[in-house]
Design goal:
With 308 residues, the protein is α/β, with parallel strands linked by helices. The chain has 12 helices and 9 strands. A 7-stranded mixed β-sheet has the order 5-4-3-6-7-9-8, sandwiched between helices. Bound molecules: glutamine. Glutamine (GLN) binds at residues 105, 210-214, 226, 235, 265.
């Protein structure tokens, strides 16, 4: 026990405040209570998480304590921790998030893994060759920009064009900020667009997307964090949940060149339906992959035809 604690047991140190908040959050059913407390405190103190442990007996000033308490209150009222601290990590990116964009989920990182794997298998052997074609990719419903910015960060040498599209001008604003924040502005372009409606046949080599896929009737069952604080346009996939996916697939089969890749995230119970939708002769080599929880989450396919 530290001397400070003995002399002044009422002092709000990092250690005490984290312990107190963990049990406060736990009683109120807040997810990951200890992590959440740490994230809020690092935000108020403008430090990294490791710094909390390096200075465990640091007392909070009155203003830090007030600021922290206000955040704790908002968190118990259902405001996502990412909105309170203003950011979310996604792969190698630190992304600004607010209520204009979906908070990138860990399971969406897997979609990038599969796309990078397929690009590596199918294209990287030519990457050193100056005549190798560079690829043109579009991320549909880009939101924070998580998917297209990850491709820019992790596989830029494969692409001649990386475009993030969203129907929401507010989302495009966030994505542009995220490109700047992550030093990727010169490699990615963002445009307001209803799915792929501005593209012509054969314009693209890769379509990647985490489209809205929740059936409208299930929206009311979502956690309050999601339902009240995240944009409906990023979640609601129409009556079947598959309406946007269906439209996107119809457009993708036209705007992709033969051999081009279609890669999307889907809902945990949509695997069989989406694979079935891709069973037409227009698509080949369909793959269905699971997330870390064993749920169907990612579908990939190639547009049929001879690779030009
Ligand atoms: N996975 C998200 C959720 O469960 C939904 C994302 C989406 O509709 N694309 O909240």
């Amino acid at each position: 026990m530290g001397a400070t604690e003995v002399k002044n047991p009422e002092l709000w140190t990092t250690k005490r405040i984290l312990e107190w908040t963990r049990s406060y959050f736990e009683e109120r059913g807040v997810d990951s209570p200890r992590l959440c407390a740490e994230l809020l405190l690092t935000h108020v103190l403008s430090v990294e998480r490791v710094d909390l442990y390096l200075d465990y007996e640091r007392p909070l000033s009155l203003s830090e304590r007030d600021q922290y308490k206000a955040l704790v209150k908002m968190r118990t009222e259902g405001v996502p921790v990412q909105h309170l601290i203003g950011s979310q990590a996604f792969r190698y990116l630190d992304l600004i998030v607010n209520s204009n964009v979906l908070i990138p989920r860990p399971e969406t990182e897997i979609l990038v893994d599969h796309v990078l794997r397929v690009l590596d298998e199918e294209f990287s052997s030519n990457a050193g060759d100056t005549d190798a074609p560079l690829l043109r990719a579009a991320d549909v419903g880009t939101g924070s920009g998580a998917l297209i910015l990850s491709l820019a960060k992790e596989a830029k040498f494969l692409f001649s064009s990386l475009v993030g599209l969203d129907i929401s001008a507010d989302a495009i604003g966030v994505a542009i900020e995220n490109a700047e924040r992550n030093g990727l502005s010169d490699r990615v372009e963002f445009r307001e667009s209803d799915l792929l409606s501005d593209y012509s046949p054969g314009d693209l080599d890769l379509v990647i997307s985490n489209p809205p896929y929740i059936p409208t009737a299930d929206i009311s069952e979502l956690d309050i964090e999601v339902r009240k604080h995240e944009p409906m346009s990023a979640l609601d996939g129409g009556a079947t949940g598959l309406e946007i996916i269906e439209r996107l697939m119809d457009q993708a089969v036209t705007v992709l060149r033969s051999g081009g890749i279609f890669a999307i995230e889907i809902g945990f119970d949509q695997g069989p339906a989406v694979v079935d939708m891709l069973s037409s002769p227009s698509w080949v080599r369909t793959e269905l992959h699971q997330d870390l929880g064993g749920m169907d989450r990612v579908v990939l396919a190639r547009k049929a035809g001879t690779v030009e």
